[in-house]
């Protein structure tokens, strides 16, 4: 069965203090690994899709990378507006057409 | 505005009651997904429909049911409600299966329906 585990559960950073969020996954036939951002009380918002090991995607202060077992979301010089919950999800070739989400990492960035 | 519309935004009801949540997908999207998000849990996949047919099922309770209509909107019916059913219910849609490119397999979520069972 497809599984996604994210760590840490919560991360507190000072503005400008770079760090990484981890997503470990188990999936049969990866069809895509996804990163979403979720603000309190709102629906998740798509950030990146990664398809194969070695792939990297960047957007502003965020950079997502992928290995065969993990994905990392690197946050460079974060700002308070980067505070949110970051969700990792996978879609596999088996298990139907569902996208499975991890529990998320809550990021707090203090000015 | 994501283009996925969910109603109602908030709903307060009592145990034992039945409610219906409604979702209209983005224009052109054929798939609709339902997820439940509780305070102590992440996004839990409930069910997916594609062009009116059920495609995948998650840990959806027997008290819950869903359907997708010919105009592609979907409804999630929750019956015999319990306190533990209090949660945010999200609907998401995605581009048609087989679509390639940056949007493939990406879920676009609505703003959610917050259900409180008292």
Short structural description:
Chain A is 0% helix and 59% strand. With 111 residues, chain A is an all-beta fold.
Number of strands of chain A: 11
Radius of gyration of chain B (CA) equals 14 Å
Main beta sheet of chain A, described? 6 strands, mixed
The ordered string of helix (H) and strand (E) elements of chain A is EEEEEEEEEEE
Shape of chain A: globular
Beta percentage of chain A is: over 45%
| Low-pLDDT segments, ≥5 res of chain B | none
Relative helix content of chain B = under 10%
| Helix count, DSSP H or I runs of 4 or more residues of chain B | 0
Morphology call of chain B: globular
- The helix/strand series of chain B, from N terminus to C terminus, equals EEEEEEEEEEE
Let me know the number of strands of chain B: 11
> Main sheet of chain B?
7 strands, mixed
Question: What does this entry look like structurally?
Answer:
The complex is a heterodimer of chains A (111) and B (118). Chain A has 111 residues and is mostly beta strands. Helices cover 0% and strands 59% of the residues of chain A. Chain A has strands spanning 3-7, 10-14, 19-26, 30-38, 45-50, 56-59, 62-66, 70-75, 84-92, 99-101, 105-110. In chain A, the strands form 2 sheets. In chain A, strands 2, 4, 5, 9, 10 and 11 form a 6-stranded mixed sheet that branches. A 5-stranded antiparallel sheet of chain A has the order 1-3-8-7-6, with no helix packed on it. Chain A is globular, with a radius of gyration of 14 Å. The N and C termini of chain A lie far apart (41 Å). In chain A, 36% of the residues are buried. The model of chain A has no long low-confidence stretch (mean pLDDT 94). Chain B is mainly beta and 118 residues long. Helix content of chain B is 0%, strand content 49%. Chain B contains no helices and 11 strands. In chain B, the strands form 2 sheets. In chain B, strands 2, 4, 5, 6, 9, 10 and 11 form a 7-stranded mixed sheet that branches. Chain B has a 4-stranded antiparallel sheet with strand order 1-3-8-7, with no helix packed on it. In chain B, strand 4 and strand 5 form a beta hairpin. The model of chain B has no long low-confidence stretch (mean pLDDT 92). The chains are: A mainly beta (111), B mainly beta (118). The A-B interface holds A 31-32, 34, 36, 41-46, 49, 87, 89, 91, 95-104 and B 2, 4, 31, 33, 35, 41-43, 45, 48, 50, 55-58, 88, 90, 92, 97, 102, 104-112, 114.
